[in-house]
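Annotated sample (chain length 183).
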Amino acid sequence: MIRSMVFSAVLLVLAGCVATGTDIADRLTSDHPEAEAYRVTDNPMAEVDQALAMAATNDTRLLLVMGANWCHDSRALAGWLGTERFAALVEDHYELVFVNIGMPQTGDGHNLEIARRFGVEDLPGSPNLLVVTPEGILVNGDTATSWRDAASRSEDAIYEELMALAHRPARSVQPVEGAEIAE
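Output written by the structure step:
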């Protein structure tokens, strides 16, 4: 009887492994582009500052994508942003900056002070997508850290969310403490 129960338990575990393996195979062969855009740079904060200055000049917003090249979802989001369809959206509405954040969920995070600058205290994984006005107001505090499923999202869903964030009124969001707001 005990032997039968142990055998059944092993079968259940193996069935779970097969499903997990299938899920991994599906993700690796999914229909989305991938790109390795998360470079280690000397001064990513300066890149953010430069993009904010360009956003003020061009009447656009900062699209700050914080992820890592090891991360499937980060590569998927970067891949979509590199397509022709998204390039036009970014050109019209955003100044795009990719920042390498390492593995914050394991305690090996990098450049986390950039997220904190805009009021995001914790990055539970990657990627994270912050939309920021030229004045430093985070527009999407409610969804900035919800992009860890980017590889599973459809192209249209990502596009529609980015379009909505390009037009979301900044005044509906509380300013980040310490950020200057231009009237």
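Annotation: The chain has six helices and five strands.
Annotation: The longest strand covers residues 61-67.
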